[in-house]
Amino acid sequence: MLKKISVAHSPDADDIFMYYAIKFGWVTPKDAVFENIADDIESLNQATLKGEYDICAISFALYPFVKDEYALLKTAVSFGEGYGPKLIRKKETKLKRNFKVALSGEFTTNALLFRIAYPEAKITYMNFLDIEKAVIDGTVDAGVLIHESILTYSSELEVEREIWDIWLELSGGDLPLPLGGMCLRRSLPLHSAIDYENTLIKAVDVANKNRKVLAPMLLEKGLIRVDAKLLDNYLDLYANDNSVKMSEIQYKALDKLYELGYKHGFYENLIKAEDYLIPSEYEELRNK
User: Fold this and answer.
1) Closest among 217, 257, 221, 233 to 72, alpha carbons compared
2) Which of 9, 147, 191, 264 is catalytic?
């Protein structure tokens, strides 16, 4: 009997797109059955802190808090390059220094960067789907939009500041903005962990190469919250060639994120991303 492995991802378009090559049976692990769970990103961050899932999508900013229990995966990653979450407010309004803002979760990457840039803001956390309405209703003065909402927000709102611009100022420029990735429980056998990661790498690659086939299937099944045109735009941003396997510049960007978090007192230790990957070279040595 095959082992069941829980794989949790967010319900936003890029995560669904990158995972569903497995769901549709185009790619499968060798010795296990993946059981997928979809939940909002902060719920996944909190679940990872509790060790609930074998493999889980997380905000990159969470990873230093779970590094001892979870290995960082090289695939299914989302980085912004000239774009990313947006701090929005109602038109014709001005924000005070201690403005009230809605963020999508304490451990999200956008929350880390926002808190560094706006230390006096009064933060409230809520599901990312509720943030736009909270700003329009005046429950909060501003909010940081993530996922598809960066493309679909109301004409009543306008951008106060791009999180990308905050990242550029803090990082010194020339690095992509790390947003989200995946991690895997360290207690899993190493040879299985390597297979599961390779399965996910293949799934993201297959999805990316077969986008014209997969995207309409997801839309037809009602799995995506946006229409075909917006889905295409969104996948251009967050599920592309750069999502398949992390590059050297992406590792540098992660290291800069963790350096900033450490420098501003959010992390107890300074870590390097590549020190926490699954040692895939083990499989090569094992097969010699």
Assistant:
1) 257
2) 147
Class of 86-171 in CATH: alpha beta
Average pLDDT, integer, range 51-77: 98
Topology given in CATH for the domain delimited by 3-79+177-286: D-Maltodextrin-Binding Protein; domain 2 (3.40.190)
Same fold, 3-79+177-286 and 86-171: yes
Instruction: Please tell me the distance from the alpha carbon of residue 27 to that of residue 199, in angstroms, as a whole number.
Output: 7
Give just the sign of the alpha carbon dihedral 255, 261, 267, 270.
Answer: positive
Helix, strand, coil share of the chain (percent; to 5): 45, 20, 35
Whether the CB-CB separation of 16 and 46 falls below 8 Å is answered with no
- Residue 9 designated active-site: no
Distance CA 11, CA 107 (A): 18
pLDDT tens by residue, 207-261: 999 888 988 888 888 887 777 888 888 788 778 889 999 999 999 999 999 999 9
Q: What is the pTM of this model?
A: 0.92
